[in-house]
Design goal:
The protein is an all-alpha fold. It is elongated and about 65 Å long. It has a domain of about 25 residues. It contains one helix and no strands.
Length: about 50
């Protein structure tokens, strides 16, 4: 049984995310989100215990 749906996805220019390159802006946003998340997870509880 073939996995053929009768259309060509590559003709539409679709790619999967892990294979795509990230722009510097996307990397910067991801880094900022990670920093905020780390602050919420570690900084807030630490500040509340002092």
């Amino acid at each position: 049984m073939a996995d053929d749906h009768g259309h060509d996805d590559e003709a539409e220019g679709r790619t999967t995310a892990p294979q795509s390159e990230y722009t510097p802006q996307q990397v910067g946003i991801g880094f900022a989100v990670a920093l905020v998340g780390l602050f919420v997870v570690f900084g807030v509880p630490l500040a509340l215990t002092l």
